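Students often ask what a holo structure prediction actually looks like on paper. The answer is less mysterious than it sounds. You provide the chain, you provide the ligand, and the output is a string of discrete structure tokens encoding the 3D arrangement of the protein together with iron/sulfur cluster.
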Amino acid sequence: MEHPIDHYWQLRLTDLKETLEGNNFEVFIAGNAVDAGHLVLEKILPKTGARRISWGGSMTFIATGLHDALKGMQNLEILDTFNKSLAPQEALELRRQSLLADLFITGTNAVTETGELVNLDMTGNRVAGITFGPRHVVILVGRNKIVPDLEAAMSRIKEYAAPANAMRLDKKTPCARTSVCEECKAPDRICNTWTITQKSFPKGRVKVVLINESLGL
Ligand code: SF4
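The corresponding structure tokens follow.
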């Protein structure tokens, strides 16, 4: 067999798709990050009719090329919450406005084999947008985010994703120094709000793109 690892993951993603659909998510599978970007632009975006688009922090989103592609598109109103030239107050206001977007795109910290999305946020704009506000949400998910259950999801996040993100963002936290979570009280603590998205409500509002590639933290 050619590409047995991709084939293995394709079967796992197909099973997970069915489980997530049972939880009222609309689910797509893409072979890699670039294909996921095309899928969003060519299939999901036109179907939503979205005009006002925003996003929450996600390395996977950047890897798909969607950030650059969407910013270059005419006739869309883009709320670019990644714009580093904004003053802190302006950036905060843009994040507040992004909760009224037609389409909100982000990643997830973990997805369980029982079909839940599990996230832990510092600011909360990402989990807020997933939960309520934007008319449509797209969650981009690399195959490395799959875990068996909620307990494994929380372990993955606290033992790996949060410390690694603290390092990536140059946060002054114990985990950024040692790789181990100390349930810190540091001002830079990035672990403030947990969400478990057990089902999509309304049905299909949250669209999950499962990607057959390891992406993000
Ligand atoms: S609680 Fe603090 S030490 Fe633990 S992972 Fe979060 S930021 Fe790091």
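DSSP finds eight helices and ten strands in the chain.
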